């Protein structure tokens, strides 16, 4: 069963990159929803529709969006899972202190007009106390922040064990992040905001997950991995990995 998922995921990636796989109707509808009007300009570079199709999110499912920022992914997830599903936006409590910019962002996103299936949750890392098990736990460009002071120097494997516990059997942990140069490990997480893919993968597998597939939708061979991700020369165009892990049934 797990092997089938791996080959399905890798095969789907090739089809998406070649433009041969039509998007499921529920994904196409979600990305074209009026609530995403301002997000459309980012779709060409972030590949939101293709990535959601790749990860296999479906109507009626429950999904956790860890550190959702201004809500690019949350709005897509909300449209895909629909009213029979739910989106939990996960915010580390040390970030969303009263009156902080992140607290204001969290509140605005969870009360955005046109969205009624999103709940904001504050958590004390590495603990993830969700109201119910979820089908998908997703994080984009945030895994590298865990072992930094910004998120309380949280161990990635300890965090991943909490994700494992929060998922339903067969649930998926989807991780997107900026690639660091080979051999960098975790040494550039707080400087360049990058993480070596193999380091991330091993840390997550150590929590009990099975590796299910990867996508090159956000690959950029022009990124030499030596610039800070906020540098104007590379911002929005970094070379990124997309990994899918599965909690065994």
Strand order of the largest sheet: 3-2-1-4-5-7-6
State the order of secondary-structure elements, H for helix, E for strand.
HHHHEHEHEEHEHEE
Count all strands and give the number. Answer: 7
Mean pLDDT: 92
Q: Major sheet: size, sense and barrel closure?
A: 7 strands, mixed
- Rough outline: globular
Ranges where pLDDT stays below 50 over 5 or more residues in a row are 1-20
Radius of gyration: 17 Å
Counting helices, strands and paired strands, the structural category is: alpha/beta
Percent of residues in helices: 25-40%
Beta content: 15-25%
Count of DSSP helices?
A: 8
Distance between the termini: 9 Å
Structural commentary:
By secondary structure, this protein is α/β, with parallel strands linked by helices. Helices cover 31% and strands 20% of the residues. It is built from eight helices and seven strands. Strands 3-2-1-4-5-7-6 form a seven-stranded mixed sheet. α2 (25-31) packs across α5 and α7 (156-166) crosses α8 (197-205). The longest helix has 17 residues, at 2-18.
